[in-house]
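The methods section describes the discrete structure representation at length, but only in general terms. The central task, working out the structure tokens from the amino acid sequence alone, is never made concrete. Nothing conveys this as quickly as seeing an actual entry. For illustration, here is how one protein appears when written out as sequence plus structure tokens:
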Amino acid sequence: KWETEKVLSIPTKKVNGWLLDDMPALITDILISMDDRYLYVSLWLFGEIRQYDISNTSSPVLVGKCSFGGIISNNSQVREVGSTTIDGDPPRVCIQQKHIVGGPQMLQLSLDGKRLYVTNSLYSVWDKQFFPLMVAEGSVMLMIDVDVEKGGLSINQDFLVDFGKEEFGPVLAHEMRYPGGDCTSDIWI
């Protein structure tokens, strides 16, 4: 008999100005680091990547988070209930003069666990509904710097692949592969 225990949940956010009163996170990808210490979760609608320490699998601890491109931002019509000012919502992220639209979607982690690569296109039909500006401008690939000692995530401002600049673009990049393998492809080696 197989059994499991729920140890983590990500609640919806109460919002104004959106399709529903409650916004789900919409988890689109998860991965575990090679050393089994960290769990990474992409929350496409929230525009967040979360890093949990899972050393104690019965009690994951949130140790890192970064935000970009979600539905709720300080220049969006959607507001989280309880956020009284524009400054209370996450800022719109700009990297190399490119405004990032569309939340984090697919994740790839380097073998050493120090670089987390992320694209922001889910499926073109969903992209058109939730992030039409991303469809018009193209998606991106970003690199997140990972603190593997204490936990923590930060967007690397020096790395940007702008798929809006492709010759026959703009294009929507869904998934990527890390040359030489990554923490999710070791089974293929």
